[in-house]
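Q: Protein A?
A:
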Amino acid sequence: MLILDGNKLSTIIRKEISDKVRTFCKTDIRPPHLAAVLIGENPASQAYVRNKIKACEEVGFASTLIKKPESTTEEEVIKIINKLNLDKEIDGFIVQLPLPRHIDEMKVNLAINPEKDVDGFHPNNFGRMALGIPAFHPATPSGIMMLLDRYKINTDGKNCVVLGRSNIVGTPISILMSKKTTPGNATVTIAHSRTSNLKEICANADIIIAALGIPNFVKSDMVKNNAVIIDVGINKIDDHDSSKKYRLVGDVDFENVKHKVSAITPVPGGVGPMTITALLDNTWKAYSKTIK
């Protein structure tokens, strides 16, 4: 059984990005610049943004954090986005999700210049991805594809089941896995809360990509021998033996599944680090288009 170690791989890829920054960015050339917009006090969002800023520092990127209170209006957020769109010193930026309920996420995504949309959520980038035209791909699916590629997981002709149909993970990864690429060329089934015979569908899968947000949902009897498991979920469950009184688990029952599979991502330390690495890679690509 192979552990698909996102921490280890992200360190390697970030070193590659850092080397490119050092080679290209001389004293008269600015480094890549990523901005993040954080609205409200969501603890998880704050942690995610901190990790992204830390990753920027690690690879030599400049970074800007724009924090606004929960009460910030949708109009104010759009103004911030318009300013970032026009700022020639900002190569890419993200608006951290989820947003407060009074702010329309689709309006926010549509306001972002697709050329700076390093999260890959703008319909222009999403549509180009679906058509196989160069575009910024959403960070988590892109990180998954990096994992599969670097660990040389064979996806060609494999039966891939994607659990979850969100626009952030499930739908885009299903598109990427079905493309005539390497990795890719899989036969993809998207399963979700309305899917009948879910256990049987999963049990026939060569590859399962779990992105449901339900702790330990995928059990051993849902997984066939030698399957490949990509666990996107990260969930808190009570653990009174831990100093934090909780622990993080994925959507897959790791301890009871790992003995059956050929490869699996751990939680934490699997897909999560690769998501941030893919965001850095997208920012480098955006920067490369603007610096001659």
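Q: Protein B?
A:
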Amino acid sequence: MFVGTGSDVGKSIVNTALCRILLQDGYTPAPYKAQNMSLNSFATPDGFEIGRAQAVQAEACRVDCHTDMNPILLKPSGEKMSQIVLNGKPIGNRSAVQYFRDGNQQQLVDAAHQAFDRLEQRYNPIVLEGAGSISELNLRHRDVTNMSMAVYSDASTYLVADIDRGGVFGSVYGSIELLTPEERKQIKGIIINKFRGDIALFDEGRKILEDLTGVPVVGVIPAFKDIYIEEEDSVSLGYKSKFAQDGKINIAVILFEKMANFTDFAVLERDPRVHLYYTNNVLEIDKADIVLLPGSKNTLADLQELQHNGVAKAIIKAHRNGKTVIGICGGYQIMGQRILDPEGIEGSIKELPGLGLLDIQTTMTKEKVTEQTTFKYKQYDTPCQGYEIHMGRSTFGTQCEALNIKEDGKEGVMQSERCWGSYIHGILDNPVVIEDILAPYIEEKNNIEEDYATFKDRQYDLLADHFRAHLDMDTIYQSLID
């Protein structure tokens, strides 16, 4: 198990690396995180919902993702509110106070334990991941996913610390010292992550930490830039470029406050013909060749914000100027004529006019669609893959045609070749779709060298190689035997 001194220290990446290392070494690993909080989720093959990080880790293990890998998912949906997804299906919205104090904690603990037990019967070993910091004393008695899970599973547990943010000695020492004796028994090692510079300069630091804690430092992992692993947390978007760039096809992704599934744009981000940036600056939107509206966990609130900050007008202007405008999931709904929420599914906003770019109207519903899907895009015969995770039903008007053909019917809307929307996440992972939307902006079509699935699998091997070179795998394997 990998736990952390705080959030964003790299637990998910470490977990992913070990998943692939264990697979390479002949084991049948599977990931597990009892409780996750993220807007970036994924649909399992059997039509349920889990956190994106566990889906990525399952890919590293080369197994299908399953709700047992993430039985509890919290999806922030508004001010102090989250949708609770239990075993892949939403069971309602709760505030933080309600979530921790309305008596449902034992139900969640039981669900987490049952999911782990089922997973353990099918895979070996299980690679567990904690959440945030292990030293939040005010939350210890409500802990579902950190040291309580380490104790329940009797996991060999490794504490991950981010040296790049500073304070690594205090955060490591304090995190371990604040554990109970029972919890501390599970800690088998320390991993120092995101190191920059000559690792030999940390030899003394390693010894100091080992003397202070009595726990071995089993790895000092250098920071890397040349390995691409899909991220789960949108905090990383704040560090990505927000400005147009000369000499490239400029693609602006509208930066929603409640953006979901930003990994929809991962393939475009690495396309050498493209400069993709996230923005809500109207001047930068005006410079874009293509404007993408992403998914949203609170579509009405994000639409209202677009109308208040001038971005809605900028998107409509881009469309009128012949730019390509595409919406995915919540962005698709926003591009329509109107969004209705008579039952208050998303909050207090009952109805808003959309951008009016697509001839659809959406009504929010309690039922949630979660499924993987195969479809054909526009007039092309090439089978495409994606997944749907959304609430709400959209009805088509007469001034549009279907974008995609699925086995069970039509999906999405195409108002014109440069204006369309779809509920399908991952639609932009398909080369035929990428080439189609870039075609008006390039003289020659240059196909991506390898398909995205092959590219991702190669990245997991590169990640495993990077971690294997800097981890004491002998000690880690010995801890599993002991």
